[in-house]
Design a protein that fits this description.
about 425 residues, Na+/H+ antiporter like fold
Length: about 425
């Protein structure tokens, strides 16, 4: 298929993706689900799990094989912009008095699901077809553990903002814990990918390149980003173009060293100076990234998700076990740790519920693992199921806790009537 033939296919595919995502978002908004959940589900429905199952010819016409690399590249633009915003948002959440409890909750929320996921793989690897040929069982186990340890920090922040609980104890604690949790999980994922290369050379390139990247961010980045934002010699358009160009250069470098573009984009967002000019740049690039580019990434992920693989009882059993351990490891560990740190039950429950959502962040990790060749289609589908279930349950559980507490709240007594003449 020539570029001239591919262009109209791309345009119609993008139109279908955007409109279908909007439709699913509108429908699920009626039951309180945030847009990112709807877009995740819409991406899966457009893939072989539903559209390809019911109307395979339609799906083949809409998403021909030569179109998939284009969707991947354009979706990566959305991911880079999204992770850049996430890093900037991460920097804005200050952690002071909650540092001790947030650190403990985050530690438990990473280590427990990491251990449970790794143990599950080690116990079932010889039975369930989840390992890529040539990839060690240790790398597969570590990847599954890291995937279960991830928290959807951007979605968590969005839910907290939409429900107006950012200033509450549980909202602040969940934000602080989720931010630390995701940073640790992404670092661990980079380590797993380095080991997953199977060769010493790429691992040294990744390790050395990461050290260089960290030093540049620490020593050089402030001297570049500061003047770029604060100078009056640039108008808003030139400033935004400069930031985007810098972002893409960072994404290029981290991709080249095997750290992947999403890591570089997040890190650059963290070191960007807090300023109203930076805020305006985020406001301009954000809607385009979330409304146009991210749905393409969701659909690309959905096209690689085959729920028909659950027809294999082994894969189905492994998927059920993964979902159960993901919930027990993240929700259970975060709730229990918050309680041990002296948090009241309502706060601990909400923190556990919010930390349990994987959302988009897990989908990003899965696609990175698939591109790196350490994840096969069965494991990809199982972990997409984990992301969907844990994300879909977040808002209903929060509403259930709120309604339960509202019913238990004591009803204020009416004042006694004042008798005439008293």
């Amino acid at each position: 298929m020539t570029p001239t033939e591919l262009a109209p296919r791309f345009f119609i595919a993008v139109a279908v993706i955007i409109l279908f995502c909007r439709l699913v978002t509108w429908l699920l908004a009626k039951v309180g689900q945030p847009p990112v959940v709807s877009e995740m589900l819409a991406g899966v429905l457009l893939g072989p799990s539903l559209l390809g199952l019911l109307f395979p010819q339609v799906q083949a016409a809409l998403f021909p094989a030569p179109l998939l690399p284009v969707l991947y590249v354009v979706g990566q633009i959305g991911l880079v912009l999204f992770m850049f915003q996430t890093g900037y948002a991460f920097k804005s959440h200050k952690v002071t008095k909650l540092a001790g409890t947030a650190g403990a909750v985050s530690l438990a929320g990473v280590t427990v699901p990491l251990a449970l996921g790794a143990l599950l793989v080690l116990a079932t690897a010889d039975v369930v077809p989840i390992r890529v040929d040539g990839v060690s069982i240790g790398v597969t186990a570590a990847f599954v553990g890291v995937a279960l340890a991830i928290t959807a920090f951007p979605m968590l922040a969005r839910i907290i903002t939409e429900r107006n609980i950012a200033g509450t104890r549980h909202g602040s604690l969940a934000l602080a814990s989720g931010a630390v949790d995701d940073c640790v999980a992404w670092i661990m994922l980079a380590v797993v990918l380095a080991f997953g290369s199977g060769e010493a050379g790429p691992a040294f390139v990744t390790a050395g390149g990461t050290i260089v990247f960290g030093l540049v961010l620490w020593l050089v980045a402030p001297r570049v980003t500061g003047p770029l934002i604060h100078t009056d010699r640039l108008d808003e358009r030139a400033r935004m173009l400069g930031v985007v160009a810098l972002l893409f250069l960072v994404a290029f470098y981290t991709d080249e060293i095997g750290l992947y573009a999403v890591f570089g984009a997040f890190a650059l967002g963290v070191v960007m100076p807090r300023h109203e000019r930076t805020d305006r740049i985020m406001e301009r690039v954000g809607p385009v990234a979330s409304a146009v580019f991210l749905p393409l990434f969701f659909t690309f992920s959905g096209l690689r998700t085959e729920f028909g693989l659950f027809g294999d009882p082994r894969v189905l059993s492994f998927g059920g076990a993964c979902v159960a351990l993901a919930i027990a490891g993240k929700f259970g560990a975060c709730w229990a740790t918050a309680r041990l740190r002296g948090e009241p039950q309502p706060v601990a429950l909400r923190v556990g519920i919010l930390m349990n959502a994987r959302g988009l962040m897990q989908l990003i990790a899965l696609n990175v693992g698939l591109e790196a060749g350490i994840v096969n289609s069965s494991l990809f589908t199982v972990l997409v199921l984990v992301a969907l279930v844990t994300t879909l349950m977040t808002t209903p559980l929060l509403s259930w806790v709120e309604h339960r507490e509202a019913r238990r709240a004591p009803v204020p007594e009416a004042p006694a009537p004042v008798l005439a003449g008293n």
